[in-house]
Design goal:
The structure is a single chain. α1 crosses α6. The protein is globular, with a radius of gyration of 20 Å. About 6% of the residues have low confidence. The chain contains eleven helices and 14 strands. The strands form two sheets. Strands 1-8-2-3-7-4-6-5-9-10 form a ten-stranded mixed β-sheet, sandwiched between helices. A four-stranded parallel β-sheet has the order 11-14-12-13, with helices on both faces. The protein is of the alpha/beta class and 338 residues long. It binds threonylcarbamoyladenylate and magnesium ion. The site of magnesium ion has 4 residues, from loops.
Length: 338
């Protein structure tokens, strides 16, 4: 059975019998399973085509539920939860003993977040437990920000898709590791690094480098545990459309487009605002705006590049502050062929 609906009771029934429910969050759509059911979580990995040792985030209906999933909740975690939950922030904490290895990929920590989306909160409330969910796309592809994206990408492999309309934030949650003392950002996302430091009253480590081995955010393992690969959202070639993405400065777009058009490539442009003087034949996608607006339409625009059959998308990033830093990060990962 496969259906797109807004029927939370049906979605809860699917979760209880070990099925998969795609549901909206404020960031992107998630592919959810009962986080306490290892066989159900294993189905997520099979459907996504994602390596088994990549951990998934457990979604909770309220902040107090972290006590049931984390062995230890440091003061900084409560401070961040109070300031940003429900919201696009994932906290990495030492796992409670009962958390299935299927969820954590065998590492000593667990990722937790309370999403800020009414249908998601209704689902979590009605289900009562934690919902393990990565983004509802095949491994390495563009994350879905509408129910239609999920259906197009996963088809009948998901039992039900809850339709909550387009996602308000549009890029994934910011991931902060609080399991090893100094808070460290593992993935840029909906909450800016500046806002995190401001709320904590001290700096947050945020070297989220692109790809360079040893520099990239890694899921590290504790003593005696298997080493895990880099978190998938931090792999350089993640979030990629079919079109080749090139990150360029606004004043370099026209020249680069001219060169590519001369090579008979189909060229599109994605930029915060309209760029004047583009050569004829260049396909300008609608202006993306800056910061929050750009984030909200980013994945939609990457899909549009493919719908138009573009060979190359020239992408001008927004200023890299707040959520703009996450947009620039995703564009660079989409551009990377590593
Ligand atoms: O906004 C989001 O976070 C969305 C929505 C659905 O909540 N979810 C999402 O999930 O982006 P996913 O699986 O596509 O990305 C989760 C990232 C991965 O890079 C994963 O490796 C990392 O979180 N992660 C999860 N648990 C972790 C842990 N215990 N330690 C380190 N990284 C972890
Ligand atoms: Mg993902």
């Amino acid at each position: 059975m496969f259906l797109v609906s807004a029927d939370v009771a049906e979605a809860v029934a699917v979760l209880r019998r070990g099925g998969l429910v795609a549901f909206p969050t404020e960031t992107v759509y998630g592919l959810g399973a009962d986080a306490a059911n290892p066989a159900a979580v294993a189905r997520i990995f099979a459907v996504k085509g994602r390596p088994r040792n990549h951990p998934v985030i457990v979604h909770l209906g309220e902040a107090t539920a972290v006590k049931a999933w984390a062995a230890e909740v440091p003061a900084d975690a409560w401070t961040l939860a109070e300031a940003f939950w429900p919201g696009p922030l994932t906290l990495i904490l030492p796992r409670a003993a009962h958390v299935p290895d299927a969820v954590t990929g065998g590492v000593g920590t667990v990722g937790l977040r309370v999403p800020d989306q009414p249908l998601a909160l209704e689902l979590l409330d009605a289900f009562g437990g934690g919902i393990a969910a990565p983004s509802a796309n095949r491994f390495g592809r563009v994350s879905p920000t509408t129910a239609a994206h999920v259906r197009a990408d996963l088809g009948p492999d998901v039992d039900v898709v809850l339709d909550g309309g387009p996602c308000a934030v549009g890029v994934e949650s910011t991931i902060v590791d609080l399991s090893r003392g100094v808070p460290r950002v593992l993935r840029l996302g909906g909450i800016g690094v500046e806002a995190l430091s401001e709320v904590l009253g001290h700096p947050v480590e945020a070297r989220v480098a692109l790809g360079a081995a040893g520099n990239d955010a890694q899921v590290e393992s504790g003593p005696g545990e298997p080493a895990a690969p880099p978190a998938p959202g931090t792999l350089p070639s993640h979030y990629a459309p079919e079109a080749t993405v090139e990150v360029v400065a606004a004043d370099a777009v026209a020249d680069r487009a001219r060169t590519l058009l001369a090579e008979h490539r189909r060229v599109g442009v994605l930029a915060p605002r309209r760029i004047e003087g583009l050569p004829a034949g260049t396909e300008a996608l609608p202006p993306a705006g800056v910061a929050a607006a750009y984030a909200q339409c980013l994945y939609q625009r990457l899909r549009e590049a493919d719908r138009r059959g573009l060979d190359v998308l020239l992408a001008v990033p927004p200023p890299e502050t707040g959520i703009g830093a996450a947009v620039a990060d995703r564009l660079r990962r989409a551009a990377s062929t590593a």
